[in-house]
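Standup notes
- HV: blocked on the assembly model, inputs below
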Amino acid sequence: MLRIDNLSAWYGEAQVLRDVSLDVAAGEVVTLVGRNGAGKSTLLRCVMGLHPGQRGTVELDGRDIGRLPAYRRARLGLGWVPDDRGSYATLSVAENLTLPPTVGPDPWPLERVYEAFPALHQRRDSAATTLSGGEQQMLALARVLRMGARLLLCDEPTEGLSPLLVRQVGDLLHEAKRHGVTVLLVEQNLHFATGVADRHYLLAEGRVVEAMENSEVRSRERELLSYLGI
Amino acid sequence: MTGFLQNTFNGLVSGAFYALLALGLAVIFGMLRVVNFAHGAFYMLGAFGAYVLLSEAGVPFWAALVIMPLGLGLLGMALERAVVHRLTRLDPLYNFLLTFGLTLILQDLVKSRYGVQSSPYATPSALSGSVDFGLFDFPTYRVFILGFAVLVCVAVWWTLTRTRVGMVVRAATERPELTPAFGINVGRWVTPVFGFGIALAGLAGVLAAPMRAVNPLMGADLIIVVFAVVVIGGLGSIFGSVAAGFGIGLVQAWGEAYLSSFPIVSQTIVFVVMAVVLLWRPAGLFGREEAPA
């Protein structure tokens, strides 16, 4: 579904991605793991079209989207779940949910979103930034599901969440996957990653240094944890 | 008491002009991050356009009230496409140079054709005379301005808070770099929003024509206070710009009425208020601190 070939990216003079190639098949959940500064978030931003300095190929369903502006990529089915949760303070919860136009074959109706997230229903007329961190994370995920995105790009969705909320995020990703949604995930929490993902890419200093099946990550969990410095 | 009410009413009427101009500046800044120093020149063009339409083509006030905002809105959109959009990637200094340069060009074009003397513009006959409020009379035309400006502000507020277009504008104003990731073509809204802000300035200009002296520098005199208003309300805050517009109108009118024996105070009171507000709330009364980039 998503194919990245020889992708390089820069922040000014500094190169942060070096010839990254990877692919994600339809229906897969794939994580990007690596230390801080390995280039994981930049990679996601390149896929979404939010990083200006890049070179290489980004293909969605065989179509080169590397030159398309971010809004066109979103309309092709990319769902952006940013690391700061992307809540709009000047929009109500309901407006945050309905801001993106619906795309793709299977957008969640608003009623279904509210059924799955009663807290969002209860607070639908409040400013989104008055929600708790966990609720804002749910809002960010619910927003792209309501939009009907086929490929979710999630940047550390569990960061700063309590174990209970981390499990809820996991359940939600499982459910999305059951409905055929594909997920590319940046994740520091290796335990969470192995619970939801099929495959993993290990990034270091802007390169993909290893591609691993989930079973391999499980068996090497201790070694990887110490490598990641967690 | 009567005098106080009259001063208050006069303050609200000047506040109406500040509010309309500041509102236009606020929507433009919110969407484009451009401070439009040429806003006063478009206000002047609104008034001058109405004057030229009437004196050279016999077009009445009511028609000018529609024609000038529309025409200037289109001119604004053309300017946005031609030059203003180039500012997005440049140092903010260019923002000042471009919009201030536009001001000088527009002012001098009008000056070279019509000179610097003020031209009279007759109050439309339907709005001449005065309204009896019991305690005092007030010119009908000023009552009209106040009502009309409040109506426009409410309509803009309604559009921004209750419609999908307004939601998109709010989202793009708050998070310009994030919003495209949700499938919103922010660029498509930039030109119309700029044109709309300019149209509001033109509208204020037409409204001013029968009340104030129409001359090429009328915008330059007013815009300094309008910028104080925008800073007090909070740059980019829609509600703040309108509230501060009316508030400053009142402060100025009361200052002129009750502090007239201290001209130095009554003439600078707006800027004193601005300085105090900035010391107390650096982002303005209703502004939000810009998130660090």
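- HV (later): unblocked. The CA atoms of residues 100 and 106 of chain B lie 10 Å apart. The radius of gyration of chain B is 19 Å.
- Next: hand off to the docking folks.
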